[in-house]
Automatic annotation (TrEMBL):
Residues of the full protein shown: 249 to 609 of 609
Keywords: Aminotransferase, Cytoplasm, Glutamine amidotransferase, Repeat, Transferase
Active site (UniProt): K356 (for fru-6p isomerization activity)
MF GO annotations: glutamine-fructose-6-phosphate transaminase (isomerizing) activity
Protein name, per record: Glutamine--fructose-6-phosphate aminotransferase [isomerizing]
UniProt superkingdom: Bacteria
Catalytic activity: D-fructose 6-phosphate + L-glutamine = D-glucosamine 6-phosphate + L-glutamate
Subcellular location: Cytoplasm
The species this protein was found in: Streptomyces durocortorensis
Length: 361
């Protein structure tokens, strides 16, 4: 049942304020400015002993894991990174007892992720799951974890589950942070930010008509460049994946800082750029990157917290705490990908060559 929407993708994008509300519900502890995640199976002493976190997933879940790794480093100050599960499991990784492994999956059935979890467990590692589908293979195989509570996701292209997975990582990061060195004040600051998300998501979704107009403006592109820095970079990668999956327009994502090391050669009017420009300590650096693109006659669509003069168009998104900005900045670009694909007559819920859960190698 699409509830009045023309596609599941549109329905699922539109459900995100409620979905985020669901992942937060019942977990916030105002007294200690922390969150409780019932199924983690990791007590405070064990959490303090974690020296590294390695996040494994595929596709969109891998991108959510990249933002998750940044959140964990920022809030809990534990070294963390994300890697495609498929690559991890074939490079004979060093499995370290002080590392906590986190497997991320919407379906909980992705074979490469499941196989990585099984290999890790065979070697005695502790593995948590950040999974959407309750009782799925990865959820069962993990030592503990947290459910993402996005609700059923039918469209092959993941949208609401991406957002909820990142929020689930923010909760995990806050939980670990408050067991370690995150202050009460910072814990409260992040909690207040989390509580603002559902309303801010509704605000972004209310701008759909404008995003649809912008999608038409860029629909002639043969290829698009997506750029961002640090917090904005995984957002750029995910937005680029969304556009190519659903519209079949070629897209690339780069850290804005890498442009001058090669990809700047591609910039011309037929290759527009989408720039993720949060209002944080890298704002001036991002502005400089946009200037470089303008100097090569590139068109720019910015996603930012204020109108960007260097850009041809800006989608303004509401500001949250710096650490939580990536949760919101990708949402307008889900709508951008959707409207581009719709105008091109694509099979939005079932893009060619793709399957919802990849249970084969
Ligand atoms: C992207 C997409 C895929 C999946 C990937 C992992 O929109 O749907 O890239 O994210 O196949 O799937 P899960 O999260 O089910 O493990």
């Amino acid at each position: 049942d699409m509830g009045g929407h023309d596609t599941y993708m549109h329905k699922e994008i539109s459900e995100q304020a409620d979905a985020v509300d669901r992942v937060l519900r019942g977990r916030i502890d105002d007294r200690f400015s922390t969150v409780h995640l019932g199924g983690l199976n990791l007590d405070a002493r064990e959490a303090r002993g974690v020296r590294r976190i390695k996040i494994l997933g595929c596709g969109t879940s891998y991108h959510a894991g990249q933002i998750g790794a940044q959140l964990i480093e920022e809030l809990a100050r534990i070294p963390a990174d994300a890697e495609p599960a498929s690559e991890f499991r074939y490079r004979n990784p060093v499995v370290d007892p002080d590392t906590l492994y986190v497997a991320v999956s919407q379906s909980g059935e992705t074979y490469d992720v499941l196989a990585a979890v099984q290999e890790l467990k065979r070697k005695g590692a502790r593995v948590l799951g950040v999974v959407n589908v309750v009782g799925s293979a990865i959820a069962r195989e993990a030592d503990g974890g947290t459910y993402v509570h996005a609700g059923p996701e039918v469209c092959v292209v993941s949208t609401k589950c991406f957002t909820n997975t990142v929020v689930a990582f923010a909760l995990l990061a806050l939980h670990l942070g408050r067991i370690r060195d995150l202050s009460v004040a910072d814990g409260k600051r992040i909690i207040d930010g989390l509580r603002r998300l559902p309303e801010q998501i509704s605000e972004i979704l209310a701008g759909e008509d404008e995003i649809k107009r912008l999608a038409a403006e860029y629909a002639d592109a043969k290829s698009m460049m997506f750029i961002g820095r640090v917090r904005g970079y995984p957002v750029a990668r995910e937005a680029s994946l969304k556009l190519k999956e659903v519209s079949y327009i070629h897209a690339e994502a780069y850290p804005a800082s890498e442009l001058k090391h090669g990809p700047l050669a591609l910039i011309e009017p037929a290759m527009p750029t989408v720039a993720i420009v949060p209002d944080d300590d890298l704002l001036e650096k991002n502005r400089a990157a946009m200037e470089e693109i303008k100097a090569r006659s590139g068109r720019i669509l910015a996603v930012a917290h204020q109108v960007q003069e260097k850009a041809d168009h800006t989608i303004v998104v509401p500001k949250n705490e710096n650490e939580l900005d990536p949760i919101l900045m990708g949402i307008p670009l889900q709508l951008f990908a959707y409207h581009t694909a719709l105008a091109m007559g694509r099979d939005i819920d079932k893009p060619r060559n793709l399957a919802k859960s990849v249970t084969v190698e």
